[in-house]
Amino acid sequence: MKDYSSSDIRNFALVGHATAGKTMLSEAMLVCSGVLGRLGSIANGSTVSDYHESEQKRGISIHASLLHTEWLGKKFNIIDTPGYMDFISEALGALRVCDFALVVVHAVDGVQLGTEEVWKYATDFGIPKMIVVNMLDKEHANFDAVLAQVKARFGEKVFPMALPVNPGPGFNQVLDVMRSEVITYATDGSGRFQESPATGPWLDKVNALHQELVEHIAESDDTLLEKFFDQGGLSEEEMRAGVHAAVQKQAIIPLFCTAADANVGVARLMDFVAKYGSSPVDRPNVTALDPNGAEVEVALTGGQTVVFVFKTLSEAHVGEMSFFRVYSGAIRVGSDLFNTDRSTTERIGQIFVLNGKNRTNVNTLNAGDLGAVVKLKDTHTGNTLCTPGLALSLPKVKFPKPNIHAALKLKSKGEEDKVAQGLATLHEEDPTFVYHVDAELRQTVLSGQGELHLQVISERLKSRYKVDFDLVAPRIRYRETIKARAESKYRHKKQTGGAGQFAEVWMRLEPKPRGAGLEFTQTLTGQNVDRVFVPSVEKGVNAAAAEGILAGYRVVDLKVDFYDGKMHPVDSKDIAFQIAGKEAFKEAFMNARPCLLEPIHSVEIKVPDDAMGNVIGDLSSRRGKILGMDVAGGFQIVKAHVPAAELYHYSTVLRSLSGGRAAHTEEFSHYEEMPRESEQKVIAESKKAKEEA
Ligand SMILES: Nc1nc2c(ncn2[C@@H]2O[C@H](COP(=O)(O)OP(=O)(O)OP(=O)(O)O)[C@@H](O)[C@H]2O)c(=O)[nH]1
Ligand SMILES: [Mg+2]
Questions:
Q1: DSSP secondary structure string, 65-85?
Q2: Pairing status of strand 370-374 against strand 351-355
Q3: Given a cut of 90, is residue 569 above it in pLDDT?
C-alpha cells in the first residue's frame, strides 16, 4: 500500500435519503477504479459495501462501510452510509470524520426528509456538500424538476456540473460543463466513456453554464473578481484554480448526474473529486480538550498522534473493530496509544484499510487517513486515542434522542446476566441505542431510532449472546391521586399470642395541584398520640403511596394530615403505627374520589405538507391536542400533547402515514387525569395481573 500525503487523501461520505443509490454509487466507484471487475447488485446481496447478512436480507444498508480506492493518484476513502433514519447515527459518525459529503438525491423522488437531515448535519460539521442526482435512467426521472427543487431547498449556489443528455431508460450521455463535452458512457457497467465536443443546442447550453460558472468562481474571491472585471472574464486556468476554493466556501455547490446501477456519470464525478474535492489539508486544525477542559488545537502537521474512533463494530471471526481517523501524527502497528476517555493504554495490533469485509493489513496510516484496528480492550465509539502523555479528547458526536421504546421479555429465566452484558456492549457500539432497567416498571426498556433499529439490535443480541426474548409494549407510568377531601380513623389491634399491637390513626386528605407530589403533615394537639409515632405513620403512608392503591401506581399530588389518634401504654409501638398509618391512608384515599393520572408527552412532528391531513387526523384519534404549527424549510412542524399510552411505536405509524417522510421527537411533559373508560381498563388490567401473580 502506497503512503499517501494528507493532500492526496479524499475522505467523503455518501449520504442521503434511503434507497437513493448510495451503495450502488460506491460499488460503481470501485468498478471504475478497477478494485472490482464488475458491479455487484443489491438484489443479489453482492455489493462490497452491504456485506452484512442483516443488510443482504433486507436489501438496505444498516452499517456505515469504509471503502477505499485510488483515482488520479488520490486515495479515496469512501464511507457508504445507510439512508434509513433508524441508522442516522452511522451517517453522523461518518460525516464527523469526512472532509466533504456527497449527498445523493433520487432523480424521481427528489429531496426527502433524509436528504434534509444529512444536509443539516454536514452543514453543522462545517464540511462542503456536493450533490449527486442518481437514478437518471428511471422512466420518470425528472432532472429539471429535481434541480429546481434542490435549488429552492439548498440555495441558488447549487450548480450543475453536468446535465443528463438522454435521461430515462437507456441514459448514458452527460453534458460535462467543465470540459464543454458530451460524455458517452459504455452500456456494460464498466464506467468507461468517450468524449465528443458538444454541438448544436448542447453547445449553447454548455457555453451559458460555463459562463455562469466563471461568474460564480469570480464572485467567490476578490482577486479573481478584479481579474474578471479587468479582463472581461477568467482564463480556463484561473477558473479551474478557483473551483476548489469556491467549493470549500460553498460559493458553488456542484451537482452531478449519475445512474449508479449502470455506472453512468460516475467516472467524471470521481475526476472532479480527485481534482477539486476537499482533502484533510483544507481543515488542518481541530479543537480538542485537555484534561483540565482547556481547548487545544490539534494540527494535521503535528508530530504527536491523535486518533478519533468514529465507529466500533463486532465482526464475526475478527472481533471488535474500531474505525478511526488520524487527526495528527501517524498510527503504527506495535505502538501504544492512550485512550483519554477511558484512561487506558491500548496496544495497536493490526491496522487495516478496508473494502467492506475485505481487509488489507498496513503498518502505518498518516494524518488525515481513515482505517480500522482490531481487538482494542476498552475503546468505544467517540473515544480519542493519542500519544501517551498527551491526554486529549476530541468532541463527541451528539446523537439524536431515541424515539421508540420497547420492553424486553425473556422467554426463559436465568439469562438476565447474558442479556445485561449484551445490552451494554451493543450500546457501546451504537450510542443511539439505549436501554435501562426500570425499577418502577420492573422492565428492561430498550430505546432506539425506529422499529427497524430495535429489530436489528434484537437480532444482534439474540445471535451473539444466544438469548431468546420478545419485545413488548413498555408499561406506562400511571399515577394515582384524589379529587376530593376525605378522612379516616383506623384502628390497628392485634392481641393473639405474645406482645400485643395497638395504634389508632386519624387523618385527613386533600388534593394538591399537579406536580406537587405527596405532602405529609401532622397537626397533633394534646397527648392522645406520642410524637415518636409520627415518623412511623409517615413511613406507613409512604409505603402505601409507593405501592399504589387503585391500580398499583404511585400516589401523588395530595396532602396527608395526621391530626389525631389513640395509643396504648404497652402495645403501641413503631410497627403498629406504621400499619395503622398505611391502612388509614388507604381508607381515606378510597373515600376521596381516587383517580388515575396518565403521562402526557410533548411531541414535535416534522411533516411534508401533503401528509399533514393524515398526521393531524391520526393525532386526534390518539387523543392528541395540537398546540401549534410552524413552517420550517418545506416542512410543517406540528407540536402536540399526546398521552404516552397512545404513542407506542408512533415513529412507525408516522412513517406509514407519510410514506417515510415525517419524523418526530417526544418527551415527557406532565400528568393529566385520564378518561374514565381508559382508566377502568387500566384498573381492570392491574387487577388481573395481580390475580395472576
Ligand atoms: N435504475 C436504477 N436503479 C438504481 C440506481 N442506483 C441504485 N439503484 C437501485 O436502487 C435500489 C437502492 O439502491 P442502493 O444503492 O441500495 O441505495 P442506498 O441509497 O444505498 O439505500 P440505503 O443504504 O438503504 O439507504 C437498489 O435496488 C439498486 O439496485 C440507478 O442509478 N438506477
Ligand atoms: Mg446503501
A1: EEEEEEETTEEEEEEE---SG
A2: antiparallel
A3: no
Cα(59) to centroid(ligand 1), Å: 9
Report whether residue 137 contacts ligand 1, using a CB cutoff of 6 Å.
yes
Tell the residue nearest (CA) to atom 14 of ligand 1: 21
Backbone φ and ψ of 492, nearest 5°: -110, 125
* Count of CA atoms in the C-beta half-sphere (13 A) of 199: 3
With cut-offs at 50, 70 and 90, classify the pLDDT of residue 582: very high
3-state secondary structure of 158: strand
Sequence-separated (6 or more) residues with CB below 8 Å from residue 293: none
* 88 CB near ligand 1 (under 6 Å): no
Give per-residue pLDDT as tens, 401-438.
888 899 999 998 888 889 999 999 899 888 899 999 98
Q: Give how far Cα 495 sits from Cα of 166, 565, 576, 581, 609, Å.
A: 98, 19, 12, 19, 73
User: CB within 8 A of 585, min separation 6: which ones?
Assistant: 488, 507, 509, 540, 541, 544, 545, 560
Across the beta sheet with 306-315, the strand order is 344-347, 336-339, 384-386, 306-315, 319-328, 370-374, 351-355, 358-362
Q: How far apart are CA 220 and CA 58, in angstroms?
A: 45
Q: Is the CB of 260 under 6 A from ligand 1?
A: yes
From CA 193, how far away is CA 136, in angstroms rounded?
A: 17
Single pTM value for the model? 0.87
18 CA closest ligand 1 atom index: 25
Residue 369 CB less than 6 A away from ligand 1: no
Q: Which of 22, 24, 27, 63 to mutate to test the pocket of ligand 1 (most atoms within 8 A of CB)?
A: 24
**Contact 138 CB / ligand 1 (< 6 Å):** yes
Res 252 pLDDT > 90: yes
Report the C-alpha gap between 113 and 91 in whole angstroms: 14
Is any ligand 1 atom within 6 A of the Cβ of residue 82? yes
Residues 6+ apart with CB under 8 A from 265: 136, 162, 164, 174, 183, 185, 256, 257, 258, 259
Q: Which three cell numbers stand for residue 588?
A: 381515606
For the segment 151-161, what is each residue's pLDDT rounded down to a tens digit? 999 999 999 99
Cα of 60 vs centre of ligand 2, distance in Å, is: 5
Asked whether the predicted pLDDT for residue 608 surpasses 90, the reply is no
Decide whether any atom of ligand 1 lies within 6 Å of the 167 Cβ: no
Ligand 1 pocket member 22 (CB < 6 A): yes
Residue 371 pLDDT grade (very low, low, confident, very high; cuts 50, 70, 90): very high
CB distance 135 to ligand 1 below 6 Å: yes
Residue 70 has pLDDT above 80, yes or no: yes
State the distance from the centre of ligand 2 to the C-alpha of 136, rounded, in angstroms: 17
pLDDT confidence band for 563 (50 / 70 / 90): very high
Comparing CA positions, the residue from 289, 270, 355 lying closest to residue 29 is 270
Q: Which ligand is nearest to the CA of 24?
A: 1
- The model's pLDDT over 447-489, given as tens digits with 9 standing for 90+, comes to 999 889 999 999 999 988 999 999 999 999 999 999 999 999 9
**Is 468 within 8 Å of 412 (Cβ atoms)?**
yes
Structure-block grid coordinates of residue 28: 460503481
Nearest CA to ligand 1 atom 4: 261
